[in-house]
Amino acid sequence: MVIRIFVVEDEVVFSKLAVTTLEKNPDYDVSVFKNGTDCLKNIHLNPDLVLIDFGLPDISGLELLQKIKQYNVDIKCLIVSAQTDLEVVIKAYRAGASDYLIKNENCMPELENSVKNLSANVILKKQVEVLKAQIIDRSKYEKILGNSQAILKVLKLIQKAERSNILVLTTGESGTGKELVARAIHYNSDRKSKPFVPVNMSAIPGDLIESELFGHEKGSFTGAIAKRIGKFEEAHKGTLFLDEIGDMDHSLQSKLLRILEDKKVVKIGSNKPFDLDIRIIAATNQNLEEKVRDGSFREDLYYRLNGFLIDLPPLKDRDDDVLILAKHFLVEFAKDNNLGKLTLEKSASDALLSYKWPGNARELKSVIERAALITESNSIDAETLNIKMGPAALNRDEEDLTMEEYKLKIIYASLKKHGNDIDVVAEKLKLSRATIYRMLKKYQFKDFFMIKE
Description:
Layout: E1 3-8, H1 12-22, E2 28-33, H2 36-41, E3 49-53, H3 61-71, E4 76-81, H4 86-94, E5 99-102, H5 108-134, H6 149-161, E6 168-171, H7 178-187, E7 196-200, H8 209-214, E8 215-216, E9 228-229, H9 231-234, E10 239-243, H10 250-262, E11 264-266, E12 273-275, E13 279-284, H11 288-293, H12 299-305, E14 308-311, H13 321-336, E15 343-344, H14 346-354, H15 360-374, E16 379-380, H16 382-385, H17 403-417, H18 422-429, H19 433-442
Parallel strand pairs: 1-2, 1-3, 3-4, 4-5, 6-13, 6-14, 7-10, 10-13, 15-16
Antiparallel strand pairs: 8-9, 11-12
Helix pairs in contact: 1-5, 13-15
Protein backbone atom coordinates (compact mmCIF):
# COMPACT_ATOMS: atom_id res chain seq x y z
CA MET A 1 0.00 0.00 0.00
CA VAL A 2 1.46 3.33 -1.12
CA ILE A 3 1.86 6.07 1.52
CA ARG A 4 1.78 9.62 0.12
CA ILE A 5 4.17 11.91 2.04
CA PHE A 6 4.61 15.69 1.73
CA VAL A 7 7.91 17.16 2.92
CA VAL A 8 7.56 20.91 3.62
CA GLU A 9 11.12 22.19 4.14
CA ASP A 10 12.97 25.26 2.86
CA GLU A 11 16.48 24.12 3.82
CA VAL A 12 17.80 22.39 0.69
CA VAL A 13 20.34 20.15 2.45
CA PHE A 14 17.94 18.87 5.10
CA SER A 15 15.19 18.43 2.49
CA LYS A 16 17.42 16.28 0.25
CA LEU A 17 18.58 14.23 3.23
CA ALA A 18 14.99 13.60 4.37
CA VAL A 19 13.85 12.63 0.86
CA THR A 20 16.83 10.29 0.36
CA THR A 21 16.07 8.61 3.68
CA LEU A 22 12.36 8.19 2.99
CA GLU A 23 12.67 7.04 -0.62
CA LYS A 24 14.60 3.98 0.50
CA ASN A 25 11.14 2.58 1.16
CA PRO A 26 9.49 1.82 -2.24
CA ASP A 27 6.01 2.20 -0.68
CA TYR A 28 6.59 5.90 0.06
CA ASP A 29 5.52 8.47 -2.56
CA VAL A 30 7.39 11.64 -1.54
CA SER A 31 6.67 15.21 -2.74
CA VAL A 32 8.69 18.25 -1.63
CA PHE A 33 7.45 21.83 -1.05
CA LYS A 34 9.63 24.78 -0.06
CA ASN A 35 6.87 26.66 1.75
CA GLY A 36 3.49 26.21 3.39
CA THR A 37 1.56 28.00 0.63
CA ASP A 38 2.63 25.50 -2.04
CA CYS A 39 1.79 22.64 0.30
CA LEU A 40 -1.75 23.96 0.84
CA LYS A 41 -2.26 24.41 -2.90
CA ASN A 42 -1.72 20.67 -3.28
CA ILE A 43 -3.48 19.49 -0.13
CA HIS A 44 -6.41 18.26 -2.27
CA LEU A 45 -4.11 15.36 -3.23
CA ASN A 46 -4.79 14.10 0.31
CA PRO A 47 -1.36 13.09 1.59
CA ASP A 48 -1.28 10.46 4.31
CA LEU A 49 1.54 12.20 6.18
CA VAL A 50 3.07 15.71 6.11
CA LEU A 51 6.58 16.38 7.40
CA ILE A 52 6.59 20.06 8.48
CA ASP A 53 9.56 22.31 9.20
CA PHE A 54 8.59 24.53 12.13
CA GLY A 55 10.37 27.61 10.71
CA LEU A 56 8.99 28.10 7.19
CA PRO A 57 9.57 31.32 5.21
CA ASP A 58 5.90 32.26 4.61
CA ILE A 59 3.83 30.85 7.48
CA SER A 60 4.83 29.12 10.69
CA GLY A 61 4.87 25.34 10.86
CA LEU A 62 2.24 25.55 13.61
CA GLU A 63 -0.10 27.57 11.38
CA LEU A 64 0.39 25.13 8.50
CA LEU A 65 -0.35 22.24 10.86
CA GLN A 66 -3.63 23.88 11.92
CA LYS A 67 -4.71 24.54 8.30
CA ILE A 68 -3.97 20.95 7.31
CA LYS A 69 -6.03 19.64 10.23
CA GLN A 70 -8.89 21.96 9.27
CA TYR A 71 -8.86 20.44 5.79
CA ASN A 72 -8.60 16.80 6.93
CA VAL A 73 -8.13 15.86 10.56
CA ASP A 74 -6.96 12.37 9.56
CA ILE A 75 -3.75 13.57 7.86
CA LYS A 76 -0.78 12.70 10.06
CA CYS A 77 1.57 15.61 10.72
CA LEU A 78 5.18 15.30 11.89
CA ILE A 79 6.86 18.50 13.12
CA VAL A 80 10.63 18.80 12.68
CA SER A 81 12.14 21.78 14.52
CA ALA A 82 15.28 23.16 16.11
CA GLN A 83 13.02 24.47 18.87
CA THR A 84 13.57 22.55 22.10
CA ASP A 85 11.30 24.72 24.23
CA LEU A 86 8.81 22.42 25.99
CA GLU A 87 6.04 24.96 25.59
CA VAL A 88 6.47 24.91 21.78
CA VAL A 89 6.36 21.10 21.77
CA ILE A 90 3.14 21.11 23.82
CA LYS A 91 1.54 23.64 21.42
CA ALA A 92 2.39 21.42 18.46
CA TYR A 93 0.82 18.35 20.03
CA ARG A 94 -2.27 20.31 21.07
CA ALA A 95 -2.64 21.54 17.49
CA GLY A 96 -2.74 17.95 16.27
CA ALA A 97 0.87 16.92 15.61
CA SER A 98 1.37 13.15 15.62
CA ASP A 99 5.06 13.48 16.50
CA TYR A 100 7.70 16.14 17.18
CA LEU A 101 11.38 15.69 16.30
CA ILE A 102 14.35 17.89 17.14
CA LYS A 103 16.11 18.85 13.90
CA ASN A 104 19.83 18.07 13.74
CA GLU A 105 22.26 16.25 11.47
CA ASN A 106 21.77 12.98 13.38
CA CYS A 107 17.94 12.85 13.44
CA MET A 108 17.44 10.82 10.26
CA PRO A 109 17.18 7.39 11.99
CA GLU A 110 14.61 8.87 14.38
CA LEU A 111 12.75 10.47 11.45
CA GLU A 112 12.75 7.17 9.55
CA ASN A 113 11.40 5.29 12.57
CA SER A 114 8.68 7.91 13.27
CA VAL A 115 7.46 7.85 9.67
CA LYS A 116 7.44 4.03 9.75
CA ASN A 117 5.24 3.98 12.87
CA LEU A 118 2.85 6.65 11.57
CA SER A 119 2.59 4.85 8.22
CA ALA A 120 1.66 1.64 10.00
CA ASN A 121 -1.24 3.50 11.64
CA VAL A 122 -2.32 4.88 8.26
CA ILE A 123 -2.24 1.42 6.67
CA LEU A 124 -4.24 -0.07 9.54
CA LYS A 125 -6.87 2.66 9.26
CA LYS A 126 -7.17 2.13 5.50
CA GLN A 127 -7.56 -1.62 5.97
CA VAL A 128 -10.32 -1.04 8.53
CA GLU A 129 -12.09 1.33 6.10
CA VAL A 130 -11.92 -1.31 3.35
CA LEU A 131 -13.42 -3.91 5.70
CA LYS A 132 -16.16 -1.50 6.77
CA ALA A 133 -17.03 -0.87 3.13
CA GLN A 134 -17.45 -4.61 2.61
CA ILE A 135 -19.84 -4.97 5.54
CA ILE A 136 -23.44 -4.17 4.63
CA ASP A 137 -25.75 -3.00 7.41
CA ARG A 138 -28.93 -4.67 6.18
CA SER A 139 -31.03 -2.87 8.80
CA LYS A 140 -30.57 0.32 6.72
CA TYR A 141 -31.94 -1.32 3.58
CA GLU A 142 -34.80 -3.44 4.91
CA LYS A 143 -37.02 -2.55 1.93
CA ILE A 144 -34.46 -3.86 -0.57
CA LEU A 145 -34.91 -7.61 -0.22
CA GLY A 146 -32.64 -10.40 -1.44
CA ASN A 147 -29.36 -12.15 -0.73
CA SER A 148 -28.09 -12.79 -4.25
CA GLN A 149 -24.63 -11.57 -5.24
CA ALA A 150 -26.28 -9.27 -7.77
CA ILE A 151 -28.32 -7.42 -5.14
CA LEU A 152 -25.46 -7.37 -2.60
CA LYS A 153 -23.37 -5.59 -5.23
CA VAL A 154 -26.11 -2.97 -5.55
CA LEU A 155 -26.23 -2.49 -1.76
CA LYS A 156 -22.47 -1.90 -1.66
CA LEU A 157 -22.83 0.81 -4.30
CA ILE A 158 -25.70 2.41 -2.37
CA GLN A 159 -23.53 2.38 0.74
CA LYS A 160 -20.80 4.28 -1.11
CA ALA A 161 -23.19 6.73 -2.78
CA GLU A 162 -24.91 7.75 0.46
CA ARG A 163 -21.64 9.07 1.91
CA SER A 164 -21.35 11.90 -0.62
CA ASN A 165 -23.44 14.22 -2.77
CA ILE A 166 -22.32 12.70 -6.07
CA LEU A 167 -24.95 12.65 -8.81
CA VAL A 168 -26.29 9.10 -9.17
CA LEU A 169 -27.77 7.45 -12.26
CA THR A 170 -29.78 4.28 -11.64
CA THR A 171 -30.52 2.08 -14.64
CA GLY A 172 -32.44 -1.14 -15.11
CA GLU A 173 -35.62 -2.66 -16.49
CA SER A 174 -39.04 -1.46 -15.34
CA GLY A 175 -39.98 -2.91 -11.97
CA THR A 176 -36.41 -3.52 -10.74
CA GLY A 177 -36.69 -0.99 -7.89
CA LYS A 178 -34.91 2.16 -9.06
CA GLU A 179 -36.95 4.43 -6.77
CA LEU A 180 -36.28 2.10 -3.82
CA VAL A 181 -32.56 2.60 -4.44
CA ALA A 182 -32.97 6.38 -4.65
CA ARG A 183 -34.90 6.45 -1.37
CA ALA A 184 -32.30 4.22 0.31
CA ILE A 185 -29.53 6.64 -0.70
CA HIS A 186 -31.48 9.69 0.48
CA TYR A 187 -32.69 8.33 3.82
CA ASN A 188 -29.22 7.10 4.77
CA SER A 189 -27.47 10.34 3.80
CA ASP A 190 -26.91 13.64 5.59
CA ARG A 191 -30.01 14.94 3.78
CA LYS A 192 -32.37 12.37 5.31
CA SER A 193 -34.29 14.96 7.37
CA LYS A 194 -34.95 17.05 4.24
CA PRO A 195 -37.42 16.42 1.39
CA PHE A 196 -37.21 13.49 -1.02
CA VAL A 197 -39.06 14.67 -4.13
CA PRO A 198 -39.80 12.09 -6.87
CA VAL A 199 -40.70 13.25 -10.38
CA ASN A 200 -41.77 10.89 -13.17
CA MET A 201 -40.70 12.70 -16.33
CA SER A 202 -42.91 10.53 -18.57
CA ALA A 203 -46.06 11.22 -16.52
CA ILE A 204 -46.06 15.04 -16.82
CA PRO A 205 -47.76 16.62 -19.89
CA GLY A 206 -45.27 18.43 -22.11
CA ASP A 207 -46.95 21.82 -21.73
CA LEU A 208 -46.78 21.63 -17.92
CA ILE A 209 -43.37 20.13 -17.32
CA GLU A 210 -41.37 23.37 -17.06
CA SER A 211 -43.86 24.81 -14.58
CA GLU A 212 -43.82 21.53 -12.65
CA LEU A 213 -40.02 21.44 -12.45
CA PHE A 214 -39.06 25.10 -12.18
CA GLY A 215 -42.21 26.74 -10.82
CA HIS A 216 -43.80 29.97 -12.06
CA GLU A 217 -44.77 33.43 -10.95
CA LYS A 218 -48.39 34.55 -10.80
CA GLY A 219 -49.56 35.81 -14.19
CA SER A 220 -46.53 34.51 -16.06
CA PHE A 221 -48.79 32.69 -18.55
CA THR A 222 -52.49 32.06 -19.14
CA GLY A 223 -53.82 30.04 -16.23
CA ALA A 224 -51.02 30.99 -13.83
CA ILE A 225 -53.44 32.37 -11.24
CA ALA A 226 -51.00 31.91 -8.36
CA LYS A 227 -47.29 31.57 -7.69
CA ARG A 228 -46.06 27.96 -7.87
CA ILE A 229 -42.97 26.37 -6.33
CA GLY A 230 -41.30 23.91 -8.71
CA LYS A 231 -39.92 20.48 -7.84
CA PHE A 232 -36.33 21.74 -7.83
CA GLU A 233 -37.10 24.37 -5.23
CA GLU A 234 -39.29 21.93 -3.30
CA ALA A 235 -36.30 19.58 -3.02
CA HIS A 236 -33.99 22.33 -1.68
CA LYS A 237 -31.55 20.87 0.89
CA GLY A 238 -32.88 17.41 0.04
CA THR A 239 -32.94 15.01 -2.94
CA LEU A 240 -34.68 15.32 -6.30
CA PHE A 241 -35.38 11.98 -7.98
CA LEU A 242 -35.83 12.36 -11.74
CA ASP A 243 -37.39 9.10 -12.92
CA GLU A 244 -37.56 8.15 -16.62
CA ILE A 245 -34.94 10.78 -17.45
CA GLY A 246 -34.64 9.31 -20.93
CA ASP A 247 -38.08 10.72 -21.78
CA MET A 248 -37.04 14.30 -21.11
CA ASP A 249 -37.61 16.70 -24.01
CA HIS A 250 -34.40 17.79 -25.78
CA SER A 251 -34.95 21.49 -25.06
CA LEU A 252 -35.50 20.71 -21.39
CA GLN A 253 -32.26 18.73 -21.31
CA SER A 254 -30.34 21.96 -22.00
CA LYS A 255 -31.99 23.68 -19.05
CA LEU A 256 -31.29 20.72 -16.76
CA LEU A 257 -27.61 20.77 -17.77
CA ARG A 258 -27.41 24.48 -16.97
CA ILE A 259 -29.01 23.90 -13.55
CA LEU A 260 -26.58 21.10 -12.78
CA GLU A 261 -23.65 23.35 -13.65
CA ASP A 262 -24.85 26.62 -12.09
CA LYS A 263 -26.89 25.17 -9.19
CA LYS A 264 -29.50 27.85 -9.81
CA VAL A 265 -33.09 27.70 -11.06
CA VAL A 266 -35.28 30.51 -12.42
CA LYS A 267 -39.08 30.37 -12.20
CA ILE A 268 -41.12 30.98 -15.34
CA GLY A 269 -41.91 34.68 -15.43
CA SER A 270 -39.02 35.64 -13.14
CA ASN A 271 -35.50 36.93 -13.68
CA LYS A 272 -34.34 36.20 -10.16
CA PRO A 273 -32.39 32.91 -9.79
CA PHE A 274 -32.91 30.69 -6.78
CA ASP A 275 -29.72 29.16 -5.36
CA LEU A 276 -30.13 25.41 -5.12
CA ASP A 277 -28.66 23.00 -2.62
CA ILE A 278 -29.98 19.66 -3.80
CA ARG A 279 -28.80 16.19 -4.64
CA ILE A 280 -30.07 14.74 -7.91
CA ILE A 281 -30.63 11.04 -8.54
CA ALA A 282 -31.76 10.15 -12.05
CA ALA A 283 -33.23 6.88 -13.31
CA THR A 284 -34.03 5.29 -16.65
CA ASN A 285 -34.99 1.96 -18.14
CA GLN A 286 -33.68 3.09 -21.53
CA ASN A 287 -30.21 2.80 -23.05
CA LEU A 288 -29.00 6.41 -22.84
CA GLU A 289 -25.88 5.63 -24.88
CA GLU A 290 -28.10 4.62 -27.81
CA LYS A 291 -30.20 7.75 -27.34
CA VAL A 292 -27.00 9.82 -27.45
CA ARG A 293 -26.01 8.11 -30.70
CA ASP A 294 -29.39 8.76 -32.34
CA GLY A 295 -29.34 12.39 -31.17
CA SER A 296 -32.37 12.25 -28.85
CA PHE A 297 -30.30 12.72 -25.69
CA ARG A 298 -27.54 15.28 -25.15
CA GLU A 299 -24.09 13.75 -24.87
CA ASP A 300 -22.86 16.37 -22.38
CA LEU A 301 -25.89 15.81 -20.14
CA TYR A 302 -25.40 12.03 -20.31
CA TYR A 303 -21.81 12.32 -19.08
CA ARG A 304 -22.90 14.81 -16.41
CA LEU A 305 -25.62 12.46 -15.13
CA ASN A 306 -23.46 9.36 -15.29
CA GLY A 307 -21.32 10.36 -12.31
CA PHE A 308 -22.03 7.25 -10.27
CA LEU A 309 -23.84 4.42 -12.02
CA ILE A 310 -25.97 1.84 -10.21
CA ASP A 311 -27.31 -0.75 -12.67
CA LEU A 312 -30.10 -2.85 -11.18
CA PRO A 313 -30.24 -6.52 -12.17
CA PRO A 314 -33.47 -8.02 -13.58
CA LEU A 315 -35.25 -10.46 -11.29
CA LYS A 316 -34.32 -13.42 -13.50
CA ASP A 317 -30.63 -12.78 -12.66
CA ARG A 318 -31.15 -12.73 -8.89
CA ASP A 319 -31.15 -16.47 -8.16
CA ASP A 320 -33.46 -17.39 -5.26
CA ASP A 321 -34.32 -13.76 -4.47
CA VAL A 322 -37.60 -14.38 -6.29
CA LEU A 323 -38.72 -16.65 -3.45
CA ILE A 324 -37.66 -14.14 -0.79
CA LEU A 325 -39.67 -11.43 -2.55
CA ALA A 326 -42.63 -13.71 -3.19
CA LYS A 327 -42.90 -14.72 0.47
CA HIS A 328 -42.58 -11.09 1.54
CA PHE A 329 -45.34 -9.97 -0.85
CA LEU A 330 -47.53 -12.88 0.30
CA VAL A 331 -47.12 -12.09 4.02
CA GLU A 332 -47.72 -8.37 3.50
CA PHE A 333 -50.81 -8.85 1.32
CA ALA A 334 -52.32 -11.46 3.66
CA LYS A 335 -51.74 -9.19 6.64
CA ASP A 336 -53.20 -6.10 4.94
CA ASN A 337 -56.30 -7.99 3.80
CA ASN A 338 -56.89 -10.21 6.86
CA LEU A 339 -56.40 -13.41 4.87
CA GLY A 340 -54.67 -15.38 7.61
CA LYS A 341 -51.40 -17.23 7.12
CA LEU A 342 -50.68 -18.30 3.55
CA THR A 343 -47.79 -20.41 2.27
CA LEU A 344 -46.30 -21.40 -1.09
CA GLU A 345 -46.34 -25.06 -2.08
CA LYS A 346 -43.27 -26.59 -3.72
CA SER A 347 -44.94 -26.59 -7.14
CA ALA A 348 -45.49 -22.84 -6.80
CA SER A 349 -41.88 -22.24 -5.73
CA ASP A 350 -40.62 -24.26 -8.70
CA ALA A 351 -42.82 -22.29 -11.08
CA LEU A 352 -41.66 -18.97 -9.62
CA LEU A 353 -38.01 -19.96 -10.04
CA SER A 354 -38.48 -21.16 -13.61
CA TYR A 355 -40.25 -18.08 -14.93
CA LYS A 356 -38.18 -15.22 -16.42
CA TRP A 357 -40.25 -12.37 -14.91
CA PRO A 358 -40.16 -9.81 -17.72
CA GLY A 359 -42.06 -7.40 -15.44
CA ASN A 360 -39.59 -8.01 -12.59
CA ALA A 361 -40.67 -7.46 -8.96
CA ARG A 362 -43.74 -5.47 -9.99
CA GLU A 363 -45.07 -8.43 -12.00
CA LEU A 364 -44.19 -10.87 -9.20
CA LYS A 365 -46.14 -8.76 -6.69
CA SER A 366 -49.23 -8.78 -8.91
CA VAL A 367 -49.06 -12.55 -9.46
CA ILE A 368 -48.70 -13.26 -5.73
CA GLU A 369 -51.52 -10.91 -4.72
CA ARG A 370 -53.89 -12.40 -7.29
CA ALA A 371 -53.07 -15.94 -6.16
CA ALA A 372 -53.59 -14.98 -2.51
CA LEU A 373 -57.09 -13.75 -3.34
CA ILE A 374 -58.27 -16.70 -5.40
CA THR A 375 -56.76 -19.60 -3.42
CA GLU A 376 -59.37 -21.69 -1.62
CA SER A 377 -56.94 -23.04 0.96
CA ASN A 378 -54.15 -21.72 3.17
CA SER A 379 -51.51 -22.53 0.53
CA ILE A 380 -50.80 -21.59 -3.07
CA ASP A 381 -49.80 -24.13 -5.73
CA ALA A 382 -48.50 -23.63 -9.27
CA GLU A 383 -51.97 -23.86 -10.80
CA THR A 384 -53.27 -21.07 -8.54
CA LEU A 385 -50.33 -18.85 -9.54
CA ASN A 386 -51.44 -19.18 -13.16
CA ILE A 387 -48.28 -17.53 -14.46
CA LYS A 388 -48.89 -16.22 -17.96
CA MET A 389 -46.88 -16.86 -21.14
CA GLY A 390 -47.07 -20.63 -21.10
CA PRO A 391 -45.05 -23.17 -19.14
CA ALA A 392 -42.34 -21.84 -16.85
CA ALA A 393 -39.73 -24.01 -18.54
CA LEU A 394 -40.09 -21.97 -21.74
CA ASN A 395 -38.86 -18.88 -19.93
CA ARG A 396 -35.46 -20.31 -19.06
CA ASP A 397 -32.35 -19.96 -21.21
CA GLU A 398 -31.87 -22.82 -23.66
CA GLU A 399 -28.59 -23.96 -22.13
CA ASP A 400 -30.44 -24.54 -18.84
CA LEU A 401 -33.21 -26.72 -20.33
CA THR A 402 -33.51 -30.49 -19.91
CA MET A 403 -34.09 -32.61 -23.03
CA GLU A 404 -37.78 -32.89 -22.19
CA GLU A 405 -38.10 -29.15 -21.66
CA TYR A 406 -36.34 -28.51 -24.97
CA LYS A 407 -38.83 -30.83 -26.68
CA LEU A 408 -41.64 -28.89 -25.02
CA LYS A 409 -40.23 -25.66 -26.42
CA ILE A 410 -40.34 -27.13 -29.94
CA ILE A 411 -43.94 -28.24 -29.38
CA TYR A 412 -44.87 -24.78 -28.13
CA ALA A 413 -43.35 -23.06 -31.18
CA SER A 414 -45.09 -25.48 -33.53
CA LEU A 415 -48.46 -24.95 -31.82
CA LYS A 416 -48.17 -21.19 -32.23
CA LYS A 417 -47.22 -21.61 -35.88
CA HIS A 418 -50.17 -23.92 -36.65
CA GLY A 419 -52.89 -22.21 -34.61
CA ASN A 420 -52.81 -24.66 -31.69
CA ASP A 421 -53.90 -27.49 -33.97
CA ILE A 422 -52.82 -30.64 -32.11
CA ASP A 423 -53.35 -32.94 -35.10
CA VAL A 424 -51.14 -30.88 -37.41
CA VAL A 425 -48.40 -30.53 -34.77
CA ALA A 426 -48.47 -34.27 -34.02
CA GLU A 427 -48.03 -35.06 -37.72
CA LYS A 428 -45.30 -32.44 -38.28
CA LEU A 429 -43.23 -33.50 -35.23
CA LYS A 430 -43.93 -37.24 -35.60
CA LEU A 431 -45.31 -37.38 -32.06
CA SER A 432 -48.49 -38.98 -30.76
CA ARG A 433 -51.35 -36.77 -29.60
CA ALA A 434 -51.12 -38.48 -26.20
CA THR A 435 -47.45 -37.47 -25.83
CA ILE A 436 -48.24 -33.85 -26.62
CA TYR A 437 -51.20 -33.75 -24.21
CA ARG A 438 -49.16 -35.41 -21.47
CA MET A 439 -46.40 -32.81 -21.72
CA LEU A 440 -48.81 -29.90 -21.93
CA LYS A 441 -50.59 -31.09 -18.83
CA LYS A 442 -47.37 -31.80 -16.93
CA TYR A 443 -46.04 -28.29 -17.60
CA GLN A 444 -49.41 -26.57 -17.07
CA PHE A 445 -49.59 -25.19 -20.58
CA LYS A 446 -53.17 -23.84 -20.32
CA ASP A 447 -53.04 -20.32 -21.60
CA PHE A 448 -53.54 -21.02 -25.31
CA PHE A 449 -56.17 -23.80 -25.43
CA MET A 450 -58.00 -26.20 -23.15
CA ILE A 451 -56.10 -29.39 -22.31
CA LYS A 452 -58.15 -32.50 -22.87
CA GLU A 453 -57.89 -35.26 -20.33
